[in-house]
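Database export, one record per block. Field names are fixed; values are copied verbatim from the stored entry.
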Amino acid sequence: MRWTPPLVKLTFAYGVFGFGYIVTATFLVAIVRHLQSGGLFESIVWLVTGLAAIPSLFLWQRLTVRMGHAKTFAAGAIIEGIGVVASVSVGGIAGPLIGGLLLGGTFIAITAIGLQAGRLLAGAAPRRVLALMTAAFGVGQIIGPIVAGTLADSTGSFFLPSLLAAAALLVSGFAAFSARNQMSAVIAAR
């Protein structure tokens, strides 16, 4: 296994994606409860999230064929970031619904696309690369709720933690996007 620049960028993007997506995935229910809209609305938000996930793999995979893994990963991270911001900035019940829709419509597919890209870049050691990418993702998933929960406790709101998560998703998207040309060259050389 050789750590090429696109593989380093992709692994970084994958870890930061873990940080960004988990904040909304963890605290979406708390955001909904803060609206005091009731248990039924909590269920509706999660239903929307789950229903959005169903076609997401198929749709994002089609985009991957057209745009490549790096651009598709970047687009998904940015779209998810928009949903994260919407969950706390769009008024009423619309914000969490948009956040849930964009979370469900992106996170499973983008997680899969990131691992697919890692496998393409891994050469002869895909298991090792996928293990390290998964570890980076897991570290992001651990740190995200700790940081977001601390910020939410100190500010009394999920607004700032959600903006931080959206910023992380933008960083993740830009890191993946910056690897696009190098990824193409590495994959073509194999």
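Remark 1: Helices lie at 5-34, 39-67, 69-89, 94-104, 107-122, 126-155, 159-178, 180-189.
Remark 2: DSSP finds eight helices and no strands in the chain.
End of record.
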